[in-house]
Queue: 2 jobs
Job 1
Amino acid sequence: MKNLVRQPRQERSIEKKNRIIAAGYELFSEVGYYGTNTAEIAKRAGVSTGIVYGYFQDKRDILISVLEIYITKVFDPFLRTFDKLTTPVDFDVLIPKLIDMAIKTHKNNRKIHEALHSLAGSDEAVGAQFIALEDDITLKIAEKFNHLGFEVENALEKIHFAMDIIQSFSHEYVFDKHDYIDYIVMKNMVVDIVKGLFK
Amino acid sequence: MKNLVRQPRQERSIEKKNRIIAAGYELFSEVGYYGTNTAEIAKRAGVSTGIVYGYFQDKRDILISVLEIYITKVFDPFLRTFDKLTTPVDFDVLIPKLIDMAIKTHKNNRKIHEALHSLAGSDEAVGAQFIALEDDITLKIAEKFNHLGFEVENALEKIHFAMDIIQSFSHEYVFDKHDYIDYIVMKNMVVDIVKGLFK
Amino acid sequence: MKNLVRQPRQERSIEKKNRIIAAGYELFSEVGYYGTNTAEIAKRAGVSTGIVYGYFQDKRDILISVLEIYITKVFDPFLRTFDKLTTPVDFDVLIPKLIDMAIKTHKNNRKIHEALHSLAGSDEAVGAQFIALEDDITLKIAEKFNHLGFEVENALEKIHFAMDIIQSFSHEYVFDKHDYIDYIVMKNMVVDIVKGLFK
Amino acid sequence: MKNLVRQPRQERSIEKKNRIIAAGYELFSEVGYYGTNTAEIAKRAGVSTGIVYGYFQDKRDILISVLEIYITKVFDPFLRTFDKLTTPVDFDVLIPKLIDMAIKTHKNNRKIHEALHSLAGSDEAVGAQFIALEDDITLKIAEKFNHLGFEVENALEKIHFAMDIIQSFSHEYVFDKHDYIDYIVMKNMVVDIVKGLFK
DNA sequence: AATGAATGAGCCTTCATTCAT
DNA sequence: AATGAATGAAGGCTCATTCAT
């Protein structure tokens, strides 16, 4: 009874909860999960330390909420793109577009991405959410392909792997760490390979 | 002056330093950097808390040493494989072999890999070491290709990207998280793509 | 950002802060600065260890507050005496009175005096406060003399030196360490000398 | 048996013990007793950490030895001056000379003086040594006066008090902390007062 | 619902002292 | 006598969480 986390009904409360999540999002991005303390989150959210525990079970619970926000941010653009897809699919246009989207997403969420991913290993729930995210996207794309009557052998493997490659490349591209790499050249390689996967 | 770290010359001492690193390696793997405390490291290493600071500047310094060990473990098998390479290179054999090695390495160092990578974002030195590792491997492979008279356009980009793909796939393979994925099928995809990169 | 020290506004809090300072005062007196630990201060103040750091930046910050209290204790009686001074000044009364006050002050603050003075050498801020205290008293007395139309050659040097002598004697008197010394005789010597300074 | 402190007979040993004391002297001067650790003392003395405990019971024991050295340094010049004294004593020469000596001693031992004095309050043995030092000087001077047939009323009080004044002034003079003070003027005040004490 | 003061366990690190060699 | 590695208790400080109001 005592430890139940408040389910905010009032608008005011919902907004307050969101402010806490937003503050967590920012701080986890800036200094990581372990570099952030709850007092700081509360201050940034403009609420008291105590009330944070009215909305969240504990610090980790904030993390989970932040993760959900993050996932939505990453998820939605892709889903919307696929929703709008109609036959015939022009892969010469689609693939570069997806890659550009991935890069953009990565750029905007670089730090939080790292902060969250870094916990995927040690925190089961965080890890599970990431897996679920991948599953969701993979399956939804496959479904869409079905609807469009687009037949691919080993579709799930290909989609998933394409996602992996794009993910990996976006990371490289955004971090831009190796001087000797021409990232434009690399990008073209990715485009070709992904196109090749779907013939 | 006061913070000088002991440089162990004696066998006995070197062994003790290694025991501490090993303990750190294990604990960071098991519960992550933030889940580990120095007392625990000392206990697991069979030494006193105090002496840890005789061998290391601070807790983070242990992390750096663990990182070095990890990098060597990952690095060496690949380098040795490339050292033994002679013309003509049979990519049909080499690529699968490299992928198998990557999988094996990943399997053996799964947890520490995550623990260390999770710090790459927040700890500059850790991040820098990972970048240096990638640079090293990429450049050494390119050099080897040169020696073998094997000419590739955009060699560095291809090598680096191949590494990325293999890394990414090994991760997938080892974690084996998605039931709907046939990882053998996926592996063949990777082999084909990497082979395709180098014709 | 993270290290902001709580500024207690409520009565309750101010009282708590004062209790911590008082506890510090006592303990520094009893066992010195280095003989005191923060947990002990907290316990004696009847608060938790943590909250001490809500009111003070660190242990040294407590010391500074203790020092302020001490200085006020020492400072005020003298100032009040000089404030009440009117022409003509009867030095035959004033000097013995000041010496008695100095002795009393010394007696009441013997241990903390030592504890604090002992840090004046190694802690710049503590040293500076002691100097400022001397400056303050010297200058205020000189000013008062001016107001009273009392002209003295080398007033500042004389006032300061008189203070030194009185200080030094009070110390002797309170500690009463040498059996062969008749402190009453010595006191009369001090009275005569100080009177002689101001004719 | 085990805890007996070695009484060094060999020259080598005595020299080593002295080196440790000298190192302690320097370090206590530079960073105070609590700012010094035994490892540092050993290093500066060019000996091993362990052997320090062959010559001294504990860290405080080094302090006591340092104190003895210090006392000798301060004591001897004054004694030698008084030893050479013959009738008739020219106080117009003697007093300024003593004050100059006191200033010089203070200047040369400023830091260690503070470091040691700061412990007199908390460490009984240290305090006792300082008292004994004062007793020694006072009594020896009184005795000398006797030998010289120089009769003074309340000799002990006067001598002791003169010492106090000179001490106090030397401190002021050496630290030179107050801009508004002309220390030459002050010095003349001291000379006059001390001379006045002994007619 | 909200505040923010308060709690106290826990962490990293230092260092006087001991001990194996 | 000597070394310096090793010990482990202790200390300053942080912070997730609770509680009085």
Job 2
Amino acid sequence: MPRRRRGWAMNGHHGEHHSQHTPLTISLLEPTLLLLISQKERHGYTLLNDLEQMNMGTIHPSVIYRTLRELEELCWIQSTWEMDQTQGPPRRIYSLTPLGEEALINWQHQLELHQKSIDQLLLMFKSNHSE
Amino acid sequence: MPRRRRGWAMNGHHGEHHSQHTPLTISLLEPTLLLLISQKERHGYTLLNDLEQMNMGTIHPSVIYRTLRELEELCWIQSTWEMDQTQGPPRRIYSLTPLGEEALINWQHQLELHQKSIDQLLLMFKSNHSE
DNA sequence: TTGTCTATTGATTATTAGAGAATAGTCTGT
DNA sequence: ACAGACTATTCTCTAATAATCAATAGACAA
């Protein structure tokens, strides 16, 4: 999982088949976490897998845990320790707060706008090709 | 133009009508610049306006100029000084290199993938609402 | 008790974004 | 010729974020 820097869009054109992630993916991390948590309470460790099973490659655990803590500082999610014997140490269970639900709605709007921007860009690409 | 920090998606829900930009917008800056330059040679100062006239709010000039220099370091674009009497100091005219054209094609693929991710997220939003 | 898997945290570094000021050429009006 | 406005680019500094790596720790099996 190397650090991506400016120009990353040019790497990975010799058979990078195993899941990668890009700055674009990272930009969707926050809303994706909120969305997953809004569906049902989750803890960080399962979110690692959940994210991988969606499109978004392998994101470093510390990035995910940090983001979760930051979302909690914003009071968008809240956590409790689950001591139920699972198969490991106690885990922090996150759930969405009312404020988080609001935030999620704003995210939806932002993503719709972003989607339009990308559509527009991709159209420009096509008209470029047809010249 | 304040610095956006974690949680920015929650700001601006009391009538922010004048063009803003978000980290999402910034993530499209690089490919947009390449695309605009691929259409025709341009210099930084016009790109400021071009970007504004597309969807992407007001981005601080220093961000755009820096990005252009970095793209030039990558040899994706190249520049010459245009001394033609315009109405100001000489300006740096950027054009796309062959490497830049390759990069642009990779960007197109990345954006298509990104678009799918967002579509998927927005679908999840909708099925959340209908529950 | 050693090792493996589950689970989270913290320290440190690298990279990027943004504010703001500095520099400079051109043009218009006085 | 000088001031002020507009065009055009660069540079420095700070704030914020991403990534790596190491540390901690419980549960369980050999």
